[in-house]
UniProtKB/TrEMBL annotation:
Job of this protein: One of the essential components for the initiation of protein synthesis. Protects formylmethionyl-tRNA from spontaneous hydrolysis and promotes its binding to the 30S ribosomal subunits. Also involved in the hydrolysis of GTP during the formation of the 70S ribosomal complex.
Compartment(s): Cytoplasm
Organism expressing this protein natively: Sphingomicrobium sediminis
Binding site for GTP: 86-93, 133-137, 187-190
Homology family: Belongs to the TRAFAC class translation factor GTPase superfamily. Classic translation factor GTPase family. IF-2 subfamily.
Protein name: Translation initiation factor IF-2
Annotated ranges, domain Tr-type G: 77-247
Length: 370
């Protein structure tokens, strides 16, 4: 529909119609609750009230979890989700490996490390931490562009023997734009040319004042190669997480974000999902982007089958009817008919986009490869 009554719009937004009328009045429009407003005005109102804009005609079909807020007394502490960023060759991958090696839960249960896009570490001292295994700001920015703000804390890696480099600065800008707290890991302190103090001074030029310079951004000197101070870095993350008071309701139907997905020869479509809230269980019916499905199996980052996955837990999900994209929303729904309806609707939107998409510019093609 090209227009909608104020009353109907208010209902869909979960706001009082009178508040919408007041807001319209302030925009210079005299409208009563039973009068129509056009699509543009409706969108303006939706934004004005701080909701996500969704074409009003979509609201009947697609899922909008933004209105669905869990009551305070259902919330329980959850692990932080951490992304590692920094210049190429400064040690992002090495650091992720070193941190993975500090997982005490891994050794006990004897699983084999699986690279599924994210993993969870339980340090010797402290609480579990979830890491996104796809370092680099491309993944970070792309996820954010798709509305998936899943990172709670960013680790900025700077090699002590190289200092701030262009991609370090880019990473800083992305972290600032996302308003995500940062911890600086000054890496490669084992090298002969290491100068951690120089790194701290260079960071000042970007208004990052680390604790060693009496600021409030935690900085930790590490060596990913020698596995020095990995425990200290994990402690710093735990401390930052405590300050953030991260919570989620584990006792509800799950929703989360697709971290990566692929078509596996033997297993069919497989997606790694990071659960945002609720607990995902084998047998749950869900929709992931344009794919409907029913959980056939859940596999953790050590290749072990698990029965369920709670908040901030990354799991591989088997049982999808198609391959979603990274950043897609994953939501458990009440039944298969509903899952199919939403999946089909999203697919039709994608098809429409595909046929109307502008030809790629040379520039954007190079961007994609970068
Ligand atoms: P990325 O591009 O940021 O993922 O960096 P990598 O983890 O691939 O590391 C780049 C290079 O630096 C590799 O040759 C690593 O072995 C080396 N490297 C990483 N961390 C350290 C460290 O703490 N000390 C030393 N000496 N070398 C390191
Ligand atoms: Mg790497």
């Amino acid at each position: 529909p090209e227009s909608i009554t104020v009353a109907e719009l208010a209902k869909r937004m979960g706001e009082k119609a009178a508040d919408l009328v007041k807001s319209l009045f302030n925009m210079g429009m005299m409208v009563t609750v039973n009068q129509n407003v056009d699509q543009d005005t409706a969108e303006l109102l939706v934004t004005e009230f701080g909701h996500n804009v969704q074409r009003v005609s979509d609201a009947d079909v697609d899922i909008d979890t933004s209105e669905d807020v869990d009551p305070e007394d259902t919330l329980k502490a959850r692990p932080p989700v951490v992304t590692i960023m920094g210049h190429v060759d400064h040690g992002k991958t090495s650091l992720l490996d070193a941190i993975r090696g500090a997982d005490v839960a891994a050794g006990e249960a004897g699983g084999i490390t699986q690279h599924i896009g994210a993993y969870q570490v339980t340090p010797k001292k402290g609480d579990p931490v979830t890491f996104l295994d796809t370092p680099g700001h491309e993944a970070f920015t792309e996820m954010r562009a798709r509305g998936a703000n899943i990172t709670d804390i960013a680790i900025l890696v700077v090699a002590a023997d190289d200092g701030l480099k262009p991609q370090t600065v880019e990473a800083i800008n992305h972290i600032k734009a996302a308003e995500v707290p940062m911890i600086v890991a000054i890496n490669k302190i084992d090298t002969a040319g290491a100068n951690a103090q120089k790194v701290r001074e260079e960071l000042l030029q970007h208004e990052i004042i680390v604790e060693a310079m009496s600021g409030d951004v935690q900085d930790v000197e590490v060596s990913a190669k020698e596995k020095t101070n990995i425990d200290k870095l994990l402690e710093a993350i735990n401390l930052q997480a405590e300050l953030l008071e991260l919570k989620a309701n584990p006792d509800r139907d799950a929703d989360g974000t697709v971290i990566e997905a692929k078509l596996d020869k033997g297993r069919g479509p497989v997606a790694t999902v990071l659960i945002k809230r609720g607990t995902l269980k084998v047998g749950d019916t869900f929709v992931a982007g344009p794919a409907a499905g029913k959980v056939r199996a859940l596999i953790d980052d050590h290749g072990r089958r698990v029965k369920e996955a709670g908040p901030a837990f990354p799991v591989e999900v088997l049982g999808l009817g198609g391959v979603p994209s990274a950043g897609d929303q994953f939501t458990v729904v009440e039944n298969e008919a509903r899952a199919r309806e939403v999946a089909e609707y999203r697919q039709s939107v994608l098809d429409k986009k595909r046929t109307t998409a502008a030809p790629m510019s040379l520039e954007s093609m190079f961007d994609k490869k970068g």
